[in-house]
Design a protein that fits this description.
Four Helix Bundle (Hemerythrin (Met), subunit A), S-methyl-5-thioribose-1-phosphate isomerase activity, Rossmann fold, 306 residues, 2 domains, IF_2B-like_C, carbohydrate metabolism, 44% helix, alpha/beta, Initiation_fac_2B_a/b/d, 7-stranded mixed beta sheet
Length: 306
């Protein structure tokens, strides 16, 4: 359990960050923990497995990839512990393999939507969005990228280094320059932390700003998202919880002590309505937001109970 709790803490503190990376880390942690429970009977095994699953899921409330990965990993139908462990190991290995392959498929599908000469704006640090950009570049398209800082944690700095090291001309802008800069942009490509049944996108705070500016400037917005980032619980009416993070990500705690009348809000995500999204690129194909229900129903295969 110590190793699993260590992974959970790294997810909580964003040492492991990004919806896809969180999902893979959680699946692997649950698999490895299950392997340590071979001496238990099946009832004890299931109790311990559920406890471990809750520990992982409770670390980040917004990224639906986390509970989806845990649910897809832990489910088994065995009455013997050794067989249950084998099922869970197979589930995790399949999930991790599919997650890795998904990025390549998203890149190939999404690159078809990028035209030669396009200037692409992106936000935060999304492996799926970067896969589209890199694949378009690999296809010989003369593209460049405008990336936001993505405050307060500045994940955009990870993006600009990755793209620059790849040889892609990249410009860094402050988040508040999005609307001004949008006139220079041909296409917006962002990732996803969650997608609800109505096609709304929950992603890094500031994403909706890009989408609104793109709508005003008549630029297309493409979302790159593995199918496990769609939220099955929204079929049952649940809202995706928006995570509020600690104020010390925004302001020095010592300064805050000197300002007793000040409150700091630090929402980590925002919601972009489906009508501002042109297309969602998944490993299963390119879909309009209105088909989110189909993806949840046909590709996730998670059992839901009212």
């Amino acid at each position: 359990m110590d190793d699993l709790e260590s992974i959970a803490e790294k997810i909580r503190t964003m040492e492991i960050r990004g919806a896809g990376r969180i999902a893979v880390a959680a699946s692997a942690a649950l698999r490895d923990y299950a392997r340590t429970l071979g001496s238990l009977d099946i009832e004890e095994f299931n109790v311990k497995l559920e406890e471990a699953a809750r520990t992982l899921v409770e670390t980040r409330p917004t990224a639906v990839s986390l509970p989806n990965a845990v649910e897809l990993t832990k489910r088994h139908s065995s009455l013997r512990v050794d067989e249950a462990i084998d099922e869970i190991v197979d589930n995790a290995d399949r999930f991790i393999t599919n997650a890795g392959e998904a990025l390549g498929k998203i890149g190939r599908i999404g690159a078809e939507r990028v035209r030669d000469g396009d200037v692409i704006m992106t936000h935060c640090n999304s492996h799926a969005a970067i896969s589209i950009i890199k694949t378009a570049f690999d296809h010989g398209k003369d593209i460049s990228v405008i990336a936001t800082e993505s405050r307060p944690r500045r994940q955009g700095f990870i993006t600009i280094k990755e793209l620059s090291d790849y040889g892609i001309p990249t410009t860094l802008i402050v988040d508040s320059a999005v609307r001004l800069t949008m006139k220079e942009v041909d296409l917006v490509v962002v990732g996803a932390d969650s997608i609800s049944v109505n096609g709304a996108l929950i992603n890094k705070i500031g994403t909706s700003q890009l989408a609104l500016a793109a709508q005003e400037a008549r630029r297309n917005v493409i979302v790159a998202a593995e199918t496990y980032k769609f939220s099955p619980r929204t079929l049952l009416g649940e809202m995706v919880e928006i995570e509020d993070r600690d104020s010390d990500e925004v302001i020095d705690p010592e300064i805050l002590k000197e300002l007793p009348n000040l409150k700091v809000k630090n929402p980590a995500f925002d919601v972009t309505p489906a009508e501002y999204i042109d297309l969602i690129i998944t490993e299963a194909g390119a879909f309009p937001p209105a088909m989110a229900f189909t993806i949840i129903k046909d590709y996730l295969g998670l059992e839901l109970t009212l």
